Task: structure prediction
Amino acid sequence: MGIRLVAVADMNEALRLAREGFTFEILVMNGAREHEFKDVDDHPNVVLSLNSLHDAEKLSKHGFQRQVKLHLYIDTGMNRLGFSDFLEYSQALAMVSEKGFIPEGIYTHFTDSENAKKQIERFLPYAHHHPYRIIHAAASSAYSFIDFGTHVRVGADLYGQNLGRIRQILKIACKPLEIRRIKRGETVGYDRAYVAQEDELIAILPIGYYNGFRRSLRGFPVYANKKRYPTVGKVCMNHLFVRVDEEVDCDTEFVITSEDLPVGEIAERLGTVPHEVLCMFRIDNIRYLK
Result:
């Protein structure tokens, strides 16, 4: 894939990738809890975020069987995780260095575009304090106007956050359970919410609001055979109705989202951000393409 380093939220996400056989390094941004230290030892491509002096003390007391790489997280305004006191930061860095850890990287996270330059100013003393090989500050929302650092965290953009800027790598798709022929005047689904205006074909997809396709997406299209087909009727818990044509059969792949129907469009329809859309989908059969 050409990827050498990815970032995930927690050890559960890291282990899913590691156990799938991916060999790129995986930065765990929440760090690891003590009961997860064995997993860190068992997977040499796991890299930990160091978020506090307390975390440094816990890591230093544990006898790891390998040299663990660390990225130090600096809080420059989010007030979420990370070092905000330079003395504590320098104590933590000295502690883990003495214990054989590899302080490879350092990073921060912006609150918003207007505050980014002030945050960079707060970040500089930390970033210049040690010869870090990797420095990352900008995520998807900031790398277009912030050029500080050696790396950027291109996260949400890969899933279609900004329409047209970068190709979406995620695809959610399924095949119909059945294609039904209904006559003009017949209704579809709960409360007879859709009435056929002519004889029509309706595809029944095995996805509904249980899987994250919200009821408020009623009427939003799905993609198949290089065209968009409208959903009709009310979204069911486990089923979705789609008005189709004769080109469709039960072997046709229907795309809920992909680069042809980006997450960003769904977010616009719902009046939210792509991050929330990505988190709302509940898909049981997940495949990683290497």
